[in-house]
Amino acid sequence: MPSYDSIVYLSCSSEFSFILFFTCISVLIGFVIALRYNRETVFSTLPVVNKPILGSLFAIVAQWKFIDQSKALVEAGQKHHPGKPFRLWTDWGEVLMLTPNYAHKIRNDPRLSFTKAVSFDGHANIPGFETVKLISNGDNLIQLVARKQLTRHLTAVIRPLSSVTEEALIKNLGQSSEWIEVNLKSAILDIIARLSSRIYFGELLYQNEEWLSVVKNYASLFFTASTDLRKIPWIFRPFAHWFVPSCQAIRHERSNARRILRPYLDQRKSLKENARLAHTSPPKFEDAIEWAETEAKNNGSTYDPATFQLTLSLLAIHTTYDLLEMCMIDLARSPGCVEDLRNEILNVLRKEGWTKHALYNMKLLDSAIKESQRLKPGSITSMRRYATSDIHLDGGIVLRKGGRLNVLTLHRSPDLYSSPDTYDPYRFYNMRSLPGKENWAQLVSTSVEHMGFGHGEHSCPGRFFAANEIKVALAHILVKYDWKLQDETGLKTETKGMIEKAGGKVKILVRRRANTDRVVDAI
């Protein structure tokens, strides 16, 4: 199996010439694209931050620049048009950027579809991106499993998560009492992949190194492949994807997933059939494959188990490892609360053990994580939507069918947060003591003021599991390890379009703490 590094090298060496080739062809048939883009825009009275040079015929150039300069462009829009909507040419096309005061009004509007936005942005009909097609499928299988089954089993999965964490930490952070160097992203990615696989596929696959390699590679390559494909004019993508190295790579990982899962699925099917023939109770599997089978049967729908597993892993790993990595960076740069966190964790576990209520009572831990998400959420904007019909918005804005919008966030607003650019792990802990803020200040709560998990009907359905997973992992790490940044290298976040991630080159020095309280390992 080719390594992730070799795939990235191949992609970098050939990507530019390939994209340039198709772009040159696009100019030759520019008239076709002009017909698409030169129509009067649906919000033509609003200012455009990055207006394409020489007209919308050359919008592809503005879209390329947005991929690398998105954060600066969004900030420029907010600076030059404070408190007002504006337009951006993005790698998703032309997007209406709404101010946060629109968020609550549109959050549950059925005419604004998140799944259709994901489908168009994520190349749902292109081979290799079947995970996107599953997310945007009308049967809502992923959403049902996340909202219904996974949330229902939250209490049951906490102890299995804790039991797997120690093994994952030793493999990635070691047991040395001396300082050792670790690439933080690689370590956290592997830890979360193991924890997620333990819950999603029981005890069968979380120790299978080949399977873990597949889910990690797919999660890492997916966003690269999505961005690479958006650099190519839309009209060529259904053909061009066959030649884009990163797209070839995610198809390869999808094939690997199907191959690895097949014997496990056949074994489960055989056990169930044998029980049926013997007129005995069928075996019970408390994992996501079983939950998906149950929901699909209830809906009368079908699905591909490998695609389903990759989709769950993609959603869980992308959201969770990035937030956990960012939280460890923030705590390394502001270690003053680490002892308070350790004391809270140990005191709660001594009283309650690994329970759902115990995680709820780790309020400072909850606050520290939410503060990291406030400073660096997974996306630089929130609430991306696709209009399924014409919509009249406040201010006389008419968003026509097929139009796109995103909502700006208030995460660094000085009107809401004192010292908004400073990491304060106590910020939301203190807010929870204010009348009416107990629920609002929790990590899993969404609001106009904090849209790290989105807001409204389409807020992240797996955020409750993700929050518990991060808390369990970080609790173990805090109690068992000391860590510090080796230097400032790689601390700058990595942004591609609307997606922002913690740096991939961050290195830490880590050591195992002596005589740690074993209550954290109690099952």
Automatic annotation (TrEMBL):
Give the Gene Ontology MF terms in alphabetical order.
heme binding; iron ion binding; monooxygenase activity; oxidoreductase activity, acting on paired donors, with incorporation or reduction of molecular oxygen
Q: Does the keyword Membrane apply?
A: yes
Pathway-wise, it operates in:
Mycotoxin biosynthesis
User: Which UniProt keywords are present, listed alphabetically?
Assistant: Heme, Iron, Membrane, Metal-binding, Monooxygenase, Oxidoreductase, Transmembrane, Transmembrane helix
Q: Which cofactor does it need?
A: heme
Please tell me whether the keyword Methyltransferase is annotated for this protein: no
- Please give the SUPFAM superfamilies that the UniProt record associates with this protein: Cytochrome P450
Q: Which CDD domains match?
A: CYP503A1-like
Residues that coordinate or bind heme: 460
State which residue ranges cross the membrane. Answer: 16-35
The record's listing under PROSITE patterns reads: CYTOCHROME_P450 (PS00086)
Q: Which family does it belong to?
A: Belongs to the cytochrome P450 family.
Q: What is this protein called?
A: Cytochrome P450
Q: Which organism is it from?
A: Ampelomyces quisqualis (Powdery mildew agent)
Q: What is the lineage of its organism?
A: Eukaryota, Fungi, Dikarya, Ascomycota, Pezizomycotina
